[in-house]
Design a protein that fits this description.
Elements: E1 2-7, E2 14-19, E3 30-33, H1 38-49, H2 54-68, E4 88-94, E5 100-106, H3 112-122, E6 127-129, H4 130-139, H5 150-161, E7 172-173, E8 184-185, E9 206-211, E10 217-223, E11 244-247, E12 251-257, H6 259-262, H7 267-276, H8 281-295, E13 301-307, E14 312-314
Parallel strand pairs: 5-6
Antiparallel strand pairs: 1-2, 3-9, 4-5, 4-10, 7-8, 9-10, 11-12, 12-13, 13-14
Helix pairs in contact: 1-2, 2-3, 7-8
Length: 323
């Protein structure tokens, strides 16, 4: 295995893509993931090499990140919301059958990607959310645990001492740029823009794509979302076609970045459909990202794309000058 790193504004962001052969060559099997989460890629690769399916590989790779609390942005103990609670989002997709399992706003359960797969394999549904998703997980045998840690409690306490800055409220009173809530609605224009104060390190996602020797494809995501998010907020990660998408007749893609914007454009779905039409992975990813940047020039994010022949590429990354 080798590691190919694309560094853009290195001070803020490094994306790492791990595969089986040098990046200029196409080969299968293949594991590609966002961010420098090398042990997650290694876990997925080991699974494939041991005869596991692409679904097994994606689940084990994302689960490794959840257990290791990758970058504080995946798994328990990170990204507390306005109430100080850590909640998890995850998704897994089978590119052979187009089945999807996903969970959002999952509480008390550390293995979000495992619960997402249970949704896919033990229900006719696609997405379960909130407390009901947690109860489902417990009924499926997942252990209920406190997702808070000393780190997440400290992050929350510091945020409260700083008058709840940053936050993601607008057009409310009291002024969300100065005060904590509770908030009540005010007229439009009270505050004209979202809190784009967060940089690329404030919320990440592991997005993973796996292809086996026969070209079977799976994709998955896992994250604890946006730090200081409004309780109940769901980003792009568990949304089919936004956080990830897989189709064994075309390829797969997975995204990371500003999920509130990315989910409005379904970039992973778009990238896969472009690859289906013959576009190479690099151009497919760039096109999907550029559509978002056209409407939101300060958007930051990235997509990884891989087609069924084993060619893969990342998209460009645009970051705020935040510091």
């Amino acid at each position: 295995m080798f590691v190919f790193q694309l560094k853009m504004f290195v001070r803020f962001l490094v994306l790492t893509f791990t595969a089986s052969l040098p990046h200029a060559r196409a080969s299968l099997p293949l594991v590609v993931n966002t961010w420098p989460f090398k042990s997650a890629a290694a876990a997925a690769w080991s699974c494939l090499q041991s005869g596991g399916s692409v679904l097994d590989a994606v689940e084990q790779g994302c689960a490794r990140c959840e257990a290791e609390q990758c970058d504080g942005s995946v798994g328990f103990g990170g990204s507390p919301d306005e109430n100080g609670e850590t909640t998890l989002d995850a998704m897994i997709m089978n590119g052979n059958t187009m089945e999807v399992g996903a969970v959002a706003d999952l509480k008390r359960i550390k293995n979000a990607i495992g619960v997402a797969r249970a949704v896919m394999e033990h229900t006719d549904h696609t997405l379960l959310v909130g407390e009901s998703a947690s109860v489902f997980a417990e009924n499926m045998g997942f252990v209920a645990e406190d997702l808070s840690t000393n780190t997440s409690v400290s992050i929350f306490s510091q945020w409260l001492r700083g008058n709840c800055q940053p936050n993601y409220r607008k057009n409310v009173s009291p002024d969300p740029l100065k005060f904590c809530g509770p908030y009540r609605p005010e007229g439009a224009g009270t505050r004209g823009s979202r809190a784009r104060l967060v940089n690329a390190l404030s919320h990440d996602t592991i997005g993973m794509v796996a292809l086996d020797q026969d070209g079977h494809v799976a994709a998955g995501t896992s994250t604890n979302g946006l730090t200081h998010k409004v309780p109940g907020r769901v980003g792009d990660s568990p949304i089919v076609g936004a956080g990830a998408y897989a189709d064994s007749s075309a390829g797969a893609a997975a995204a990371t970045g500003d999920g509130d914007l990315m989910m409005r454009f379904l970039p992973s779905y778009l990238a896969v459909e472009l690859m289906r039409a013959g576009t190479d992975p690099s151009e497919a990813c760039k096109t999907a990202i550029s559509r978002i940047k056209k409407h939101y020039p300060d958007f930051f994010g990235a997509i990884i794309c891989a087609n069924t022949t084993g060619h893969y590429a990342p998209a460009e990354v645009q970051l705020l000058h935040c510091c």
